[in-house]
Amino acid sequence: MSFISTLKKSYAVGLIAGFGVGALAYNPISTYHYLADPGAAADDEYFYIITDSDDPAPYNATGYSIKALYGFRSKDMQNWTDFGVIYDARKVDGIGDIWASGIAKNPNDGRLYIVFPDGGGGGIGLIGADSIAGPWTNPLPNNKKLINNWGGGFADCDGIGWCFDPAIYYDTDGTGYFTFGGGSSDSRPARDNDNNIFNIYKLNKDMKGFDTRPTQLKIGGPKAMEASYIHKYKDNYYLSYSTADLRIAYGMSKSPTGPYTYKGIFMGNPNIGGQNINANNNNHHGIAE
Question: Is 226 a known active-site residue?
Fold first, then answer.
């Protein structure tokens, strides 16, 4: 796990998005979990990180068996409180595995919200809490998901190949958005200089729903894989994503819903001494000020 200073008082956290792979850094936040897919958020007091983990998986599990979200919090980016498992998919009806998720602080109600994928493409869920420690509950009517692939949501995946890897963002005016996407399909292709695999939606202020009319986040640049993420710096919005060749690319816009103009790569595939350290698994990132 590593921190890279990208902007004044702004940090990006990147962690290997592979199964059972350790993380190397000068100052690891955790060395006693198998963690992946970080999301980041901050308020005036704390910096937050969430990750998924295969810690709860059966001893003889094979492939991806990721059932839990872990939470961390810090006031100084050096001393961290580990809250352990903050959300356990095994205890929630209608959810399978729980993979790469996003977190944000809602300036309207002061609560933290997490958007998460239901397994390998079953849809996108929403939970909220007053503290990183929880308890985390679904604010949507009848415990629905935001997006469904296998049922139980307000809208479908809109032709996106992989219905996962969501992120959540609140603009400076308090408007909330969530984004997701990955893979490639005939109707929503991913290819060099022509990526159409991400959607963005505007959340209702009461967090009980969203505008189900999708906005497609088309962007140039290297072939996209997954992990769309939006943040704002000064007057510009940034859409960053994981590329098929294991880097994090980004584009810029004057609106959170785009259009985004591709700008370049800001985080490379992790290497030490020229040697890849993540067994050629994918990368996932989070950015917070």
Answer: yes
261 CB neighbour count, 10 Å cutoff: 13
pTM above 0.85, yes or no: yes
Catalytic residue among 97, 118, 226, 245: 226
Is-catalytic flag, 45? no
Q: Which two tokens stand for residue 140?
A: 């949507």
Amino acid at 157: C
Instruction: Give the integer Cα–Cα distance in Å for 277 and 270.
Output: 6
Please, what sign has the CA dihedral across residues 159, 160, 165, 166?
negative
Of 37, 52, 97, 118, the active-site residue reads: 37
The full 3-state SS of the chain, as one line of letters, equals CEEEEEECCEEEEEEEECCCCCCCCCCCCCCCCCEEEEEEEECCCCEEEEEEECCCCCCCCCCCCCCEEEEEEECCCCCEEEEEEEEEHHHCCCCCCECCCEEEECCCCCCEEEEEEECCCCEEEEEEECCCCCCCECCCHHHCEEEECCCCEEECCCCCCCCCCCEEEECCCCCEEEEEEECCCCCCCCCCCCECCEEEEEECCCCCCECCCCEECCECCCCEEEEEEEEEECCEEEEEEEECCCCEEEEEECCCCCCCEEEEEEECCCEECCEECCCCCEEEEEEEC
Q: Tally Cβ neighbours within 10 Å of residue 249.
A: 23
The residue length of the chain stands at 289
pLDDT digits (tens, 9 = 90+) for 196-248: 999 999 999 999 999 999 999 999 999 999 999 999 999 999 999 999 998 99
Q: What is the pLDDT of residues 43-56, one digit of tens each?
A: 999 999 999 988 87
- CA neighbours closer than 13 Å in the CB half-sphere of residue 142: 6
